[in-house]
Amino acid sequence: MALPTSVRRRVSAIPSAARGGLALGPLLSVTGILLLMLAAAMLVPMLADLAVGHPDWQVFAASAAATAFFGTALVLANRGSGLEALTTRQIFVLTTLVWTAVSLFSAVPLALSGLGLSLADAVFEAVSGITTTGSTVMIGLDYAPPGVLLWRAILQWLGGIGIIVTGVAILPVLSVGGMQLFRSESSDRSEKVLPRSAQIASAIGGLYVTLTLACVLVYWQLGMDLFDAAIHAMTTVATGGFSSHDASIGYFQSPAIEWAAVVFMAAGGVPFVLYLQAVHGRPYALWTDIQVRWFFAILLGASLLLTIWLVRELDKPVFEALRSAAFTATSIMTGTGYASTDYGQWGTFPIILLFFLKCVGGCTGSTTGGIKIFRFVVLYKVARIQMNRLVQPNGVFIMTFNGRAIAEEAAISVMAFFFLFALTFTAVAGLLAALGLDYLTAMSASVTALANVGPGLGPIIGPAGHFGALPEAAKWVLSAAMLLGRLELFTVLVLFTPLFWRG
User: Fold this and answer.
1) What is the pTM of this model?
2) What is the C-alpha to C-alpha distance for residues 81 and 74, in angstroms, rounded to an integer?
């Protein structure tokens, strides 16, 4: 039955978001702004190629111009779109839209460069960069043009700060996979540190830049040239793992550089909000946070187990074994993916342990990937309370996280995330197996992409291999899986539910 004219006029006067529609104007405007920032970033590798006379400077110039054109068009076409009252549905769409658009435009200079990458290769490399995964299809990095090497590092560096902002400001609002635990907690902490959220974002950005510059200076002083130091500093702090050499950190054959990488990779795995608290007079916050305690406990335990294995089974000297174990465990758990040796040759136990570390990941609010420490903490507390109730059925037990009670809704969200991660991992591994990949390659590639780690396991995609030999279709599947993992699964998959679009 048709509505009366007066009613139709009143409904049309209501903003589309309030009526259940989805206003795209503000979302496209934000996407355009970020594309303009991406275009500006492309000028850096352009200047690097121009300085050495490499013709790829024209590729970066053209890519920057095209990206700026589309960004400007989106901004101008959506002028006046309000950003003050974005709905939850709009934020879901915006988050996925932004990460997808930036990934695709980031692939343009890689596809047009003189490296001869296919479209699937270029998109895979760009997505791997912006999600700080670190898997690569490229070989011959030692002879690659400086612009491409610098662009890969810049993508990971931008992706690192991007996921910090997403984890601190967006995912808690969306209550994705238990992230609502950090909504009230981060706001309370923020009010004690700085008065406004905008100041917090800029302060985190300042800390990120400072940590990167410190890493550059340390690498430079330990023997890297300035170009290598800058590239590895960006990918270390971002826990991304892209290198300018095929042998990764192992190229430098320097124990001091490996220990420095351990320190900065671990620093990237700690919530950056805690650094703010430490700088503003609460240094103990770094040690009282349960995520940080679990993070370092797991990291230390894994490093010691690997050290014992290397000494007993492979007869390595103790200090050499400790260095290799600590470096590899930190690289894998933080999702950096650097390699100093082919750990695929260490034996079955190290492979199983490293597979577990891939899944665990680092802390929420850091640059790391994986399932995240806090979810394992919540799952442990749920299991412990269930066991206590078996002993005392009438007892009252309260779950806490950093001294705060965990709502049942948050606990259910965490368990749902574990289920969805396992289901998605199985689906991706099944698709890869159907495309012709062997069992170990399919399984490790799936968890590597979803956990945003980098190298897989086995001779094809292990630390001594690369993803370039995979079928084109497998690269598209893994590109989608990397974005899924970076956005915590729910953020993307909720868009495919009919209820989301019903208003």
Assistant:
1) 0.90
2) 11
